[in-house]
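Quick one: structure tokens for this chain, please?
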Amino acid sequence: MDRLTEMEAFAAVVDQGGFTGAATKLGMSKSAVSKHVSSLENRLGARLLNRTTRRVNPTDIGLLYYDRARQVLSAATEADASVTSLQSDPSGTLQLVVSTDFGATVLSPLITSFLNRYQDMDVNMVLTNRYVELVSEGYDLALRIGAKPDSSMQSHRLDTITQYLVASPEYLARSGRPSRIEDLAQHQLLHFHTPDSDPNWSLMSHTGERRIVRTKGRMTANSGLCLREHALAGMGIAFLPDFLVGEAMADGKLCDAMPSLPPQKIPLYAIYPPNRGSIQRVRTFVDFLNTAYSRPVENRAIA
């Protein structure tokens, strides 16, 4: 049997935690995947997987082999992609994952411009606030707001996003404006919350110290758009990015609830597995985003 096919089948079983998921990912039958893995184990003379009725896990030897196999498969994918990219215009489907609010409000117009420019490209954009494992779940690229990603991923910093503590003028007239981070404990807070995160805020103080605000609010949601609407309705203070609140702040419908704080800035990254960096559809999209973010905000969605 083909060694690369055996490696690919084995790696998919480890990534998906079983033969059924691996078969779905690879587009082959479960029995074919099992046959490839068994052939690999026989050829190596080693058991690579512990099989139970509920889950399949790699053995210690299997984990070592998985790491090496992933390197080989990545190199093979990169080699294929580098040749293909030299012979054709960008084509195929870009598998992209992005947070819900950013994808709906900022990225969607850019995707329209991208597709208008590259007629042979398709985009499958998944909006989710869940942390996604790019390799095991089959994504080419993610756009993430926050800390620099770990070293196992390639990353490209696109922009810096500013977050604001915002509230309606009516709420501030009724409850007062906090002057210190400690004062937030006396206010109604509107927290962003997902199953992967705690409902708290990380604020940079005047001294450069990072302060965590864990005061419980009356409202938590996994949607910044939802929290913005509650802030507009005078329900409390929300901590939201500029792309969600900039217009409402310019119109006076929302106010900076604590203007004495230093700018609360977080980076925006394009992140992709190392073996995807040379794939033309990924490289083309990252270059497109880099160009878009070098323009003024009002011109970014113009083709």
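DSSP finds ten helices and 13 strands in the chain.
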